[in-house]
Amino acid sequence: MKYIFGPVPSRRLCRSLGVDLIPYKHCSFDCIYCQLGATVHKRAERQQFVETGEVIAELESALPCVEADYVTLSGSGEPTLCLGIGELIEGIKELTEIPVAVLTNSSLMSCAEVRKELLGADLVIPSVDAATQDVFERINRPCSGLRIEDILCGLEEFSYEYSGKLWIEVMMVRDINDSDDEIDKIASALTRIRCEKIQLNTVERPPAESFARALTQGALEKARRRFDDRAELIVASGIYQDADGSFHSPAGAGLGAPGIEADCGRVLELLKRRPCTVRDIAEGLDLNINEAAKFVGILKGEGLICAIRREGRAYFFANDGN
Ligand code: SF4
Prior knowledge:
This protein is of the alpha/beta class. It contains 10 helices and 14 strands. It has helices at residues 52-62, 85-95, 112-118, 133-140, 148-161, 180-190, 217-224, 264-273, 278-284, 289-301; strands at residues 4-10, 14-20, 26-27, 41-42, 70-74, 100-104, 123-126, 165-172, 197-202, 231-234, 240-241, 247-248, 305-310, 313-318. Strand 1 (4-10) and strand 2 form a beta hairpin. The chain starts with a strand and ends with a strand. The site of iron/sulfur cluster has 10 residues, from loops.
């Protein structure tokens, strides 16, 4: 498969069948916390990266073999850089009843054409990590000319134009955007935006820069209290906590749950897109944890993947060129 990967375990989207529209790390940002590493092609110009018909044909053959809670446009860069994303969303909707989600860094939300193309999605998750230009530049390292105030205005407009679900993600990074002042400014900016949820996240997977460090659970909780009651905390291990304090786990993502057959190739495809623990692989591909560990051992033995430890957990990722 050239464009489709997963399903991958997702804390919010449960089993998310990924559609990768963008060549590796073409992005308008170079976020210090990016799990994919440094941005290789930093750009804010849109381009026709894929043929819609080819992506639809791949999905048509993949969908009967997978169980997914969302078809998610995300992957190796910023999906809204892809011209024709609206046409693709329409094509997927004609193919399946599985809801379509788009993860975006929001950078092109000031562009009316991009907003219009996203209207057909069932769920859009834009990220907003800053409310001031200085913090925006330090955390997201955007292409020159991108201004956070324009992005926030675009998001505000989109929130009134769009009738699907809108969840805003805020990635909190220690000593970068976690001051009371910046949090209050982000919280205040988001009051202008009509969204269902504000999801506070922190660095969990190995980041592009070692200085991008996670907030403690206590600091995240303290930050959440500075937002309005739409805010919720996303915590590790596939469990998320709602604003009312209740915890939820991904439906059907239990270890050993019956599901699709996996092989080393599928595990490798997953690890090309994101670093994962053995548990992530097991949950995302519906494998018993021992099977997942076995495939990881084989791929590691073949030199196709390697591991990095972070906060006591081993994350596996594909070596360059695989
Ligand atoms: S985290 Fe997303 S927006 Fe940021 S550099 Fe990585 S791919 Fe781009």
